[in-house]
Amino acid sequence: MTIFLKDNGVELFSNAISPCCQKVKMCLYELNLTFDEHEVSLDSKENLSTWFRGINPDATLPALKIGDKVISDSTQICLHLAREFGNGRLMPSDVKSYSKMLSILGLLDEKLHPASACLLWPMCIRPSFLKMEYSYAIELIKAIPNKARQSRQKSLFQKGLDADEVAEGVKTYEAIMSEIDLGLRDMNWLSGDHFGLADISLAPYLQISKQFGWGDLISEYPALEELFSRLSTRPSFKRGVMDSISGESRTSMLIKGRAKSAKIYGLR
Ligand SMILES: N[C@@H](CCC(=O)N[C@@H](CS)C(=O)NCC(=O)O)C(=O)O
User: Fold this and answer.
1) What pLDDT is stored for residue 185 in this prediction?
2) Which CATH number fits domain 95-266: 1.20.1050.10, 3.30.70.920, 1.10.10.10, 3.40.190.150?
3) What is the pLDDT of residues 197-220, one digit of tens each?
């Protein structure tokens, strides 16, 4: 059954290449929820505009608006949707697996997301920044409310893949994939026997290595590769993660990524 959230005024503010936005879309599709989607440009930092900061003062994507209420963190959005509309799906019912799921969600948000951003930003957003007047680009970055994000983006803008943050990002990305692979050895899904929010939350980040042709970052981890194959068969993965990016953009990302694979692998 499809639930028409749209009729209740549900809007998703998102960006096509953002893994945390893709995760929310995958969750919405998994729960058969319909919604209105608004693309907010990260290339021009539309997320810093007055209109968007009126929706989310933190100026980050995704943001989900349900009536007057805005939820502005991808994990909080997914937990809310699963609780409200999941009917017991997507979250384990036993306490041990539930707390394991929460700790995976925390690890992905706190460590994997910033590490992946250091790979995505120079590849996908920096080219637009390089076309801007230098001082304008720096002013835009200075307007980011979060200081850590500001300093990371300044360095990624100035140094691209040569930034220290990229080397740290590649190492962190691999270390987390290795840790998750170990935990998956005797399980089909991340929080146990059933597919759920932990799997949804990892899916877009796993996909990043494929999107740039950097499959070696996960190819040593057989359980992760198997998880990726299982995820790829889910319609929610196709719609929420794969179809989020057009075929043309995917081809271009793959070409640009492959040209940099020796550089990325050299940072491991
Ligand atoms: N923990 C947040 C992180 C959100 C986040 O970092 N979003 C990025 C896009 S992937 C963003 O909005 N960046 C804004 C910017 O770069 O100025 C969540 O999961 O929602």
Assistant:
1) 82
2) 1.20.1050.10
3) 999 999 999 999 999 999 999 999
State pLDDT tens for residues 7-17. 567 899 999 99
**Domain map of the chain by residue range?**
5-85, 95-266
Tell me, rounded to whole angstroms, the distance of Cα 186 from its chain centroid: 26
Report yes or no: 244 and 25 within 8 Å, Cβ to Cβ.
yes
Residue 104 has pLDDT above 60, yes or no: yes
Of 60, 75, 245, the one to substitute when testing ligand 1's pocket (max ligand atoms within 8 A of C-beta) is 60
pLDDT over 60 (residue 116): yes
Beta strand 63-66 with 10-14 is: antiparallel
Tell which phi-psi region holds residue 89, choosing left (phi > 0), alpha (psi between -120 and 50) or beta: beta
Topology of domain 5-85 in CATH is: Glutaredoxin (3.40.30)
Q: What secondary structure does DSSP assign to 24-88, as a single string?
A: HHHHHHHTTB--EEEE--TTTTGGGSHHHHHH-TT--S-EEEETTEEE-SHHHHHHHHHHHH-TT
Taking only the tens place, the pLDDT of each residue in 169-191 is 999 999 999 999 999 988 889 98
Question: Which of 13, 44, 48, 61 for mutating ligand 1's site (highest number of atoms within 8 Å of CB)?
Answer: 61
Pocket of ligand 1 (CB under 6 A): 18, 20, 42, 47, 60-62, 73-75, 109, 113, 144
The Å distance, Cα 62 to ligand 1 centre, comes to 7
